[in-house]
């Protein structure tokens, strides 16, 4: 499937979100926390897909909607001491964002793999 001309974006995004190479689905996508690497299994160069600002943006958007918004419905948020609320929620939000960021970045890299977007200035359909 990796040599076919058609690359399904859902497949690429699923593989990337699982932190695997979007091309083969076997090798790791990262060599460190967010450092994209070439796939040791199939040799595909995943470093050509520029994720740039999209992963942090989408991570903040998702965490804001699925974590912060429901948290605001909890009565203790409004009744507790503000310093306690900040001391409890800030580390929680930081941990959720740091855990979600590689998943979201992998999905973005997988989407770019499917769209064959390498970030070259002269690139086009």
Task: Describe the overall structure.
The chain is mainly alpha-helical. The protein has one domain. It is built from 4 helices and no strands. The protein has helices at residues 9-17, 54-71, 75-79, 82-115. Helix 1 (9-17) crosses helix 4 (82-115) and helix 2 (54-71) runs antiparallel to helix 4 (82-115). The longest helix has 34 residues, at 82-115. The model has no long low-confidence stretch (mean pLDDT 92).
Q: What order do the helices and strands come in, and which of them pair?
A:
Blueprint: H1 9-17, H2 54-71, H3 75-79, H4 82-115
Helix pairs in contact: 1-4, 2-4
Gist?
With 125 residues, this protein is mostly helical.
Structural class: mainly alpha
Distance between the termini: 21 Å
Number of strands: 0
Strand content: under 5%
Global Rg: 18 Å
In helices, the fraction of residues equals 40-55%
Number of domains: 1
| Global shape | elongated
* Mean of pLDDT: 92
> What is the N-to-C succession of helices and strands?
HHHH
Reported for the largest beta sheet, the result is: none
Low-confidence stretches: none
Number of helices: 4
